[in-house]
Write a structure and sequence with these properties.
alpha/beta, six-stranded mixed β-sheet, 13 helices, globular
Length: 317
């Protein structure tokens, strides 16, 4: 077993996994997994730059993670950064800050690399499941982008498109500097049209409708599962490999789109950092399910973070 640390820094959150991995047997023993909402992508769609306060929130989380990695004695760390830092003009400020704190440079990966890691992390433990038929469509709904990957044991086709819960919220659901509470029918229609256009782009290279099993990743999807199960608090074990029907996703999405901030914040399983962006994330999921005719989504807590850990363990060998 090789002890590794993996960090996934996205548009909305930064996450850490420290685990003992054996690439040959496929065994992963989790030692620490945590997530911090830092909203690194705050305003990037509008300004093209990472905001100073967003950088400081991210660096504070990095300092916390550095202490955990040191305490657990990980042999190798891989830090992967996604959509927001890939797009920003001042990405060098971000790279320097991470290097100073953690001793490694963040790898600002492409959308295709992001999709590869997500697929590996999400499907490695599904191998041999008789109740889930291949090919899989793995969908990772992030803050700034959504990754689509179709494959069996390995990736057959992948595409990253610029729709995510933060980007869609900032682009369509903000008026006078604040999130509309609740959004108007016109705002929702414009957001849905944007999502459908992105799905058209994804279908140019990824055969979405050939998939037999839809696997959904990241906070928007896991939060929808938590709401569907009426969990009093977020429970990773209950959420991991849960299944949510299309009808239930539609019911939850419609409620989120007509709810107020206070109503969403009152949900016990809702992370405070997702209150304003969950409606957009749920709508992305619903649009995908309707596009491919999926009757349900299999929810995975294991995603790009686990894929990064597997890649770190393989590299250390």
């Amino acid at each position: 077993m090789t002890r590794v640390a993996a960090i996934d820094c996205g548009t909305n959150s930064i996450r850490l996994l420290v685990a003992d991995c054996d690439p040959e047997t496929g065994e992963l023993v989790e030692l620490d997994r945590r997530m911090t909402i830092v909203r690194l992508g705050q305003g990037v769609d509008r300004t093209g730059r990472l905001a100073p306060e967003a950088l400081e929130r991210t660096f504070a989380a990095c300092r916390e993670y550095a202490a955990v990695i040191k305490e657990l004695g990980a042999e190798r760390l891989r830090f992967v950064a996604t959509s927001a830092s890939r797009d920003a003009e001042n990405r060098d400020d971000f790279v320097r800050g991470v290097l100073d704190i953690l001793g490694v440079e963040p790898e600002v990966i492409t959308g295709d690399q992001e999709a590869e890691f997500s697929f590996t992390g999400a499907t490695k433990e599904l191998t041999g499941r008789a109740d889930l038929t291949r090919p899989y469509l793995v969908v990772d709904i992030g803050g700034g982008s959504t990754e689509f990957v179709v494959g069996e044991e390995h990736v057959r086709a992948a595409r990253s498109v610029d729709v995510g819960c933060v980007r869609m919220t900032e682009r369509h659901l903000v008026a006078d500097g604040k999130v509309t509470d609740p959004p108007t029918a016109e705002q929702i229609a414009a957001m849905r049209a944007d999502i459908e256009a992105a799905l058209d782009l994804a279908e140019e290279t990824v055969p979405l409708r050939e998939a037999h099993t839809l696997v959904g990743l990241a906070g928007s999807v896991t939060t929808v599962s938590a709401i569907a199960q009426e969990l009093p608090a977020y429970d990773s074990e209950a959420i991991h490999h849960s299944r949510v029907s299309h009808d239930k996703v539609r019911e939850i999405t419609e409620w989120l789109l007509r709810s107020t901030h206070a109503q969403r914040a009152a949900i016990g399983s809702m992370h405070p950092g997702r209150v304003d962006v969950i409606a957009a994330g749920a709508l992305v999921l619903l649009a995908i399910m309707e596009r491919i005719g999926a009757r349900e989504v299999v929810v995975s807590e294991h995603d790009i973070l686990d894929g990064i850990a597997w890649s770190a363990a393989a590299a250390s060998r």
